[in-house]
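Two proteins follow. First one:
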Amino acid sequence: MGVLKGTTAIVTGSNRGIGLGIARAFAREGAQLVLAARDAALLDSVAVDLRELGCEVEIVPTDVTVEAAADELIERSIDRFGNLDVLVNNAGTGTRAPITDMDLGTWQTTIATNLTGPFLCARAALRVMRQAKRGRIINVASISSQRVRPESAAYSASKFGLWGLTQVIALEGREYGVSCSCLNPGNTLVDSDVSTARQDASGKYFGRVGWDGVEEPLMTVDELAAAAVTMAAMPDHVNMLEATVLPVGQPYIGRG
């Protein structure tokens, strides 16, 4: 316990799902948190729960696709805590549609949220971190940044782009002591899965149906968040550049 004690971390998209799981795991490890998402009321509710864990929390309602909002997020974090150790770019969106049926608005919204948003937040954070000569940026991508599925053009393109952005940030940040990592989750039990998921006798979750119509296993957000904690807790001179975390039984290698 306490491997992140004294650390200031921003988690975007932290009002539900994976972002909430990461924020909760960071709080348990002693981090002070800045929670960012568009839904202010839900952020307030999350903040109450995390404060019960003894965590200092600042909430900043943020649309990460807006340049001024991303800049303000970093500024508010510094104003409250005086430093920024970790930025977790988690806010994201995704829809499924064949390329021939995908409208331009869906494509643009997905790219804006999943790729432009992380760029804007990372740019603002990097400007602060390079002055401090330390810091860590963790981009939450997907196994779709490595292996794609049908009907995922916008989502997969955004996540491939995020993996590329991660590497550029890592290169440009290293002379300032700033690292950048990419966390690639597989099937994760989030809010939208709760009503349909089932749990077997061993405690494992199933329920998400793949593109081929076959039921697939799920891991919990807490299980995934353990990897984010490991990334964030690395010594300043060490970087876990990439981590892929997925249920053992999930189709991945050779999928398509």
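Second one, unrelated to the first:
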Amino acid sequence: MHSYTEEEIALYVNGDMAGEEQQQFELMLQRDKTLQENVQQYQQVQATLRTRLAPDTQDKALSQTLHSLNEEYFGKTEAKIRPVGIYIKWACAAAAVALILVVNLFHPWKQHDLYKEYGGLQMVTSAERGDHTDTLLQQATTAFNNQQFDVAAKDLQVIFEKDRNDAMITFYYGVSLIETGDMQKAENMLEHVYAGNSVFKYDAAYFMAIRFLKEHKYNDCRKWLLNIPVGTSRHAQAQLLLESIASLSE
């Protein structure tokens, strides 16, 4: 079984992989849970940095810090092959540093709604197999990533009804329900994922917190954020959100 490097994952996520190479990668993505997790974490890091790092004359120090991290862990000129887990570790570390610097320099929650700041998510897709369920999944993914959550929720519900044990579908279905305002059903979906042991377990905990954040129920939000342990992909983001709501009260 082929083991994909961080460079190959980056090529796929950035849309720079094509042809037979992309097809083989997507076939592996369908059945390899570890690869799914690594792709999702890479996308989360990218999405987080894109949403938080707006061009500004005041972010020179931030850019220098990220550049230093890149040189230290990935090398200045020569591409290095490392295990995917190491790449994810340092990518998440770089994202955490970036977010902490943004918090210290700009305090974004003072200017923007916390739900908008912390509730963003992109849905990870799998390869097309040609069956009806997969077509629905692609439609749902496109709708979700275009923020057409009512459309995404309908398609995801159909897929969910066919396989209630699919943690990925249940998770994204739950998030789409938060966006459409069906909070109780969203809770049911996310609690089901959190109770399991899938790679989406702590994503579900984080978006349970986001569900309560949307309604300004900060105590419940805190409780769920505290369920996210150190070393998981959502921990740094959860800690930042905890800091952001520390001075708020219901």
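SUMMARY FIELD: Residues 6-106 form one domain. The longest helix spans residues 84-106.
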